[in-house]
Design goal:
- With 253 residues, the protein is α/β, with parallel strands linked by helices.
- It folds into two domains: 194 residues, 2-enoyl-CoA Hydratase, Chain A, domain 1 (Alpha-Beta Complex), CATH 3.90.226; 49 residues, Lyase 2-enoyl-coa Hydratase, Chain  A, domain 2.
- 51% of the residues lie in helices and 17% in strands.
- The protein contains eleven helices and ten strands.
- The strands form two sheets. A six-stranded mixed β-sheet has the order 1-2-3-5-7-10, sandwiched between helices. The chain has a four-stranded mixed β-sheet with strand order 4-6-8-9.
- Helix 1 links the parallel strand 2 and strand 3.
- Helix 1 packs parallel to helix 3, helix 3 runs parallel beside helix 4 and helix 5 crosses helix 6.
- The protein starts with 5 loop residues before the first strand and ends with a helix.
Amino acid sequence: MNFECIIYQKADKIATIKLNRPKVLNAMNKQLWLDFQAALEDAQNDDKVGVVIITGEGRAFSTGADLKESKDRSLEAYRDYLEELQEASRRIIRFEKPIIAAVNGYALGSGYELALACDIRIAAEDAQIGSPEARVASAVTGGASRLIQDLIGPGKAKELLFTARNIDGREAERIGLVNLAVPGDQLMDTTLQMAEDIAKNSSFSIKMIKKGLQMASEVSLESLMDYEIEACLSCVSTKERQESLVRFEERDR
């Protein structure tokens, strides 16, 4: 598949979406979001894909919205752009397969918010992560108002959003904003290793677990526990479950 604003590759059960506008540090325009959603759709429909990685080409993950493009945009056109952005975030949050963000270089604004929507974040130690919206008279999108508080708590979230300051990957790991910070030259190898570790496991089981985790913030505990029963029964009824039990028995012989 050929795209204008991303590079999309698939290999060994892992799909990689690389934001590809390096001349503008992968600043986001509407076409990038359209390309991104098309790649996600393909990864969702491909049974051979178990994990998706999102990263950026060149010196940045993404510096967020393309402010040069937005400068002369009408409010109607801006609404259209924001709706595409929000739909992309919804797709990531609700995506049935695990998504890992490999955060290289700058991850700012809606680029940072894209990483927040992923299941797991691995950052380069020298990555620069932040929300400059308050500095440029804008507001956060992509569900970040909730996602960032879920990760680091309301007090720290307010501090970062109100000051509009950047933090590096090491600080992001310390406060729980990213799962792991590694030297930049190890970022993709580390991310691929985690993706491979996930891809070895039952894709159906992960789908059920991920759905339960999403429901946990949306439904009552009783409803969640009812779902867990049905999810577990669905998993243990699969052919994959029987095969895994055979392997387990053979291992102990």
